[in-house]
Every structure is written in C-alpha cells, then in structure tokens.
Amino acid sequence: MNAPTLTFDFTGQSVIVTGAARGIGLELGRFFRNAGATTYLVDRDAEEVKARADEIGATGLAADVGSTEDVTGVVDQVVRETGRLDVVVNNAGILRDSVVWKMTDDDWDAVLNTHLGGTFRFTRAATPHFRSRGYGRVVNVTSYTGLHGNTGQANYAAAKAGIIGFTKTTAKELARFGVTVNAISPNAATRMIASIPDDKKAEIAAGIPIGRFAEPREMTGAVGFLASAEAGYVTGTVLPVDGGLSM
User: Is the pLDDT of residue 189 over 70?
Assistant: First the structure.
C-alpha cells in the first residue's frame, strides 16, 4: 500500500527561503518551487545559491541576513519583480561551537546575529508588505537545543530559544493583520551536525523514538502546512519535527 502524499498549491505566490544553498533550506526551496511558487533562495554563498537555484528553477540571491541593507534589498526585489510577497521562511544559520569559558565575543555575536538577527530582519522587512495585503506567512526554524540546551552550544541555544520567543511575540503582534508566524523545531541530518563524532551521533539517534535523524526533505510537509492558506488559524506554534525526541 502506497503512503499518502501531502500536496500543496502555492501557484501565484512569492516565497523567500533563507539559508537555502543546501540542507533544509534547499529542500524547502525545491518544495515551494514544485508547488508552483515563484521562489527565491537566499544565502551568503553567492556561487552555490545561484547554482542550486538554477537547478530547481528558482532565483538565487546572495545576501547576508546580518545586514539590514541586504535583507531590505532582497524583499524589495521580490516585491518589485512579482508584485507581492506571501511567505518568508527564516532558516539561515551557522555554528561556532565552544564551551562558554572558551567562547569569544565574535563566536557569540556571529551566531546570534545570523540565527536570531536574520529572523528579525527578514520578518521586519516583510511585515509592511504583509500588512498592506492583509495576508502573510512567516515560518521560522528553531531547534530542540533552543529548549533543552547542548554542551558547547550556548550561543546556538540562546539564538534558537530567542527565535521561539520572537515567534510567539510577533504572532501576537501580527495576527490582527492576517499574518501568521510559526516555527518548526527540526532534528535533521544536515551539515549543522556534521561536526559531531559518529559515535555521538549514533548515541543521539538511539535516543530518538523513531531511531534516526530526519532527512532535510522531511521538513517540507510541516513547513508547507504552516505556510499555506489552510493554516490561517494556526499561529504562535512551535512544531517539533524531531522523531519524538522532544517528548
């Protein structure tokens, strides 16, 4: 018996996905493009994001989510070229792992500015367009670590916890304008966990009820729903997509 397939239609919509040159971001970009959206992949790796965008029929834009000028430029370009903006997926992130007594100011600032600062900047830039139309969807990517912490990742945990608070606050602020703000909390096998030793990864996987890390493409169903018109009564939610790890 074949498993049921989730289908979403984003035809006519304009979607921005950040951190989209690889991993979860690239799979989300592919998903939205296949679902009919005019899709913009955003990443600071100019060569990579443009190559990947060409492969899937999207537009690749080089931008630093830590730069207000870059972020505003991306949003303005999307609205100028398509006449609208419907969905923003804030996925951009980096790692600068270290125990707290060895962590530098640069390590701290870079991670907070990318994860949390990027989420803030893109949401802020998109909000005037959403408000003027009375419609918009923001989906943020947080993490299990944002709720439970992880040794050597004080900066990452703080950033992801901040995204949870930011998601809930902006959901309250924007609900009256027809704009929803939600987040997913994934546990996927991407380059973000590539530095973890294999024995440690096996130990972590053994603690996941489903028994493995997710593949990046397994995030698309959750994000697709939260980004859809059908999810208009869902806001301020942090949806775990972690194989039961957070139970």
Answer: no
To the query of whether residue 156 is one of the catalytic residues in this protein, the response is: yes
145 within some domain:
yes
**How far apart are alpha carbons 114 and 6 in whole angstroms?**
31
Q: What is the count of structural domains for the chain?
A: 1
Domain that holds residue 73: 14-239
Phi first, then psi: give them for residue 196, nearest 5 degrees. -75, 130
Written as one string, the DSSP assignment of 146-186 is: HHH--TTBHHHHHHHHHHHHHHHHHHHHHGGGTEEEEEEEE
Q: Is 169 part of a structural domain of the chain? A: yes
Residue 9 lies in a domain: no
- Where are the extended beta strands (E) located within the chain? 14-18, 38-43, 59-62, 87-90, 136-141, 179-186, 238-241
Q: Is residue 161 in a domain?
A: yes
pLDDT tens-place string over residues 112-157? 999 999 999 999 999 999 999 999 999 999 998 899 888 899 999 9
| Active-site option among 40, 135, 144, 156 | 156
Query: Using an 8 Å Cβ cutoff, are 37 and 11 in contact?
Result: yes
Residue 3 DSSP symbol: P
